[in-house]
Specification:
Layout: H1 13-18, E1 22-26, E2 32-35, H2 37-43, H3 55-63, H4 70-82, E3 86-94, E4 100-109, E5 117-123, H5 125-138, E6 142-148, E7 153-157, H6 173-176, H7 181-194, E8 198-206, E9 209-221, E10 227-236, H8 238-271, H9 278-288, E11 299-305, E12 308-312, E13 321-328, E14 331-340, H10 354-393, E15 397-402, E16 406-410, H11 413-418, H12 422-425, H13 439-450, E17 455-463, E18 469-481, E19 484-494, H14 496-539, H15 543-579
Antiparallel strand pairs: 1-2, 1-5, 3-4, 4-5, 6-7, 6-10, 8-9, 9-10, 11-12, 11-14, 13-14, 15-16, 15-19, 17-18, 18-19
Helix pairs in contact: 8-9, 8-10, 14-15
């Protein structure tokens, strides 16, 4: 009958079954003499009996294939085949079920009398993990510990406060951390009683210094699941807490600055609200200001301008208040007062922050500028209303024209003069109405006014809506905004009738001149024949006939003398009319 590998073992079977390390005995004939069950599990030997197998075959079949490091494979093969002693060699392996593990292999001659060799294969994964665990903990702020049911420390690693890992063993909280024992004991008792994980930040006082640790406490159970103590980790978060506290302070400061900016933005936005009057603005500012202070719910505001008050909150007096004055054009017109209506926590210099006084001063300066602006706008609006009233009632046409927008404003007189309503002409250009005969004159005048010159007495011919021609006399002025010429304004009147009158007057003068000349010529042409007639009368023998001729000549001379007098009067009248441009 063939013996099993355990029957051939040199030790008691119970001892072999209890071993966690795999053992293999090789005879002097290099064949397997025996092995324990741990070896079969580690190497995945599926045969019921490998006793008698040649050692090289065992290596090639079950052991070397699971080693992942080729250098280790070659070294093992060489050493074990040569039968040399091998100190423990750590190899990385992947077992038959796919699990990666670390295995320690050693070999030495045993049982010298028989020439047998003992090979030991031990699973070193746990030892290596423990080594890595210790190495990681030693370089970190994490403490690991275990306490029994009496809350005595039974194991500790990487202790950083007070006692060392060894000295804390056997201590309770009142021994290790007397100033914080009550709180620590209560937390750990809760874990023992509830079986639940507890996490808390605990402050320790060691050598007069305060340190904060983040504790994670879990129940420690035996193999049956019974709670037999507490296991825990402690992470030093002192610096982290300091950073977080500094971050909270910075965040709080940032929020305050954001509130202040939001307050200023809201006030700036209020000014642009259509229909906003000074009274509405001041009340809205009073309602808005509290958002910029630390305790908005307890903040009241009073704004006084020109003797009128605007409140937010109860108007009663308060011992906690700050003020800032409002100045307009260098003169004080009021003040803004912020008050706390109830007692609030105070800082080093009272309940108000220095930044809040700066914010209040900034707001009052802005209010002063806003009031100045509103006053200027009101005055400008009043001036515009007066101008518009004058323009609306004026018999002269008034037109404003911008470079890109065409005619912008047309007074009602335009409809009377040209027949176009102002609405019809808005957005059009002057060139749409000027006759070609006047375009060159118009363009020259426009060039001059857009250079900044004043153009006066410009006469142009335009087309009325009914097709007739009108003559306008225009005075042009540039429109200047922000030191730039953006358009021009035209004031003009219809001089068509005046021009017609002047033309008729010139025609009358011309006709008068011709008539006077004709009178003089006529007188001269008549006098000469009369003298001849008088001479003939003197030569006649018939005295009666001669006298009749002389009588007719005298009568004609009287008429010519009357013409001379009228001619002289006409010349005087003409000179008078020319002298006074009538």
């Amino acid at each position: 009958m063939t013996d099993s590998h355990q029957d051939r073992a040199p030790f008691h079977r119970a001892v072999l079954n209890a071993l966690e390390d795999g053992l293999l005995v090789i005879g002097d004939d290099r064949k397997v003499r025996w092995y324990n069950p741990a070896l079969a599990r580690t190497l995945g030997i599926r045969q019921t009996n490998a006793i008698g197998m040649e050692f090289g075959s065992l290596l090639d079949t079950y052991f070397l294939p699971i080693i992942e490091d080729e250098d280790s494979v070659q070294l093992l093969h060489r050493v074990l085949e040569n039968g040399a002693d091998l100190p423990p060699l750590l190899c990385r392996t992947r077992t038959h079920d796919g699990t990666r593990r670390w295995i320690s292999i050693s070999s030495k001659q045993a049982f010298a009398a028989t020439g047998q060799r003992l090979i030991k294969i031990r699973d070193a994964t746990a030892d290596l993990n423990a080594h890595h665990f210790r190495a990681a903990l030693e370089g970190s702020p994490v403490v690991v510990f275990v306490q029994d049911e009496e809350l005595r420390y039974i194991w500790s690693y990487n202790q950083q406060l007070g006692s060392t890992d060894a000295s804390i063993i056997g201590m309770r909280e009142e021994d290790a951390f007397p100033e914080d024992a009550e709180h620590l004991t209560a937390l750990k008792r809760r874990v023992l009683e509830t079986g639940k994980t507890v996490r808390a930040a605990v402050t320790f006082t060691i050598a007069g210094k305060r340190r904060v640790r983040d504790l994670t406490l879990k129940p420690f159970r035996d193999a049956d699941g019974t709670i037999v103590g507490v296991t825990g980790t402690a992470f030093d978060v002192t610096e982290q807490n300091r950073v977080e506290e500094a971050l909270r302070e910075k965040t709080h400061e940032l929020k305050k600055r954001m509130d202040e900016l939001r307050c200023l933005y809201t006030i700036a936005h209020l000014v642009e609200t259509p229909g906003m009057t000074l009274e509405k603005l001041l009340q809205a500012v009073a309602d808005t200001l509290p958002m910029g202070w630390q305790y908005p719910d307890s903040t009241g505001v009073r704004i006084t301008v020109d003797g009128r008050d605007y409140y937010r909150g109860d108007p009663v007096d308060s011992p906690w208040k700050q003020k800032s004055l409002i100045a307009v054009h260098g003169e004080l017109v009021g003040e803004v007062e912020v008050r706390y209506l109830a007692e609030v926590p105070e800082g080093g210099k009272g309940p108000f922050l220095p930044e809040e006084q700066m914010l209040l001063d900034s707001i009052t300066k802005r209010l002063g500028r806003i009031i100045e602006r509103l006053q200027v706008e009101a005055a400008l609006e009043e001036s515009e209303e007066k101008f518009r009233g004058i323009a609306q009632r004026s018999f002269d046409l008034i037109v404003t024209s911008y470079r890109d927008d065409g005619l912008n404003y047309i007074s009602p007189a335009m409809e009377r003069i040209l027949g176009y309503s102002p609405e019809e002409m808005v957005g059009t250009d002057w060139e749409d109405y000027i006759l070609p005969t006047s375009l060159l004159v118009w363009k020259e005048g426009r060039r001059r006014v857009l250079r900044g010159e004043q153009v006066e007495g410009l006469q142009i011919e335009v087309r009325r809506k009914n097709g007739e021609t009108a003559i306008l006399e225009l005075n042009e002025s540039p429109i200047i905004e922000k030191k730039a010429i953006v358009g021009f304004q035209v004031i003009g009147r219809d001089i068509s009738e005046r021009i017609l009158h002047e033309r008729l007057r010139e025609q009358a003068f011309d006709m008068t001149e011709r008539n006077i000349a004709q009178f003089a010529i006529l007188a001269d042409h008549v006098r000469h024949p009369l003298q001849v007639i008088m001479g003939v009368a003197d030569l006649l023998d018939d005295e009666a006939v001669a006298e009749k001729l002389r009588e007719q000549v005298r009568r004609i001379n009287v008429q010519i003398g009357e013409l001379d007098r009228e001619w002289m009067e006409s010349r005087k009248i003409r000179e008078f009319l020319k002298r006074y441009e009538l």
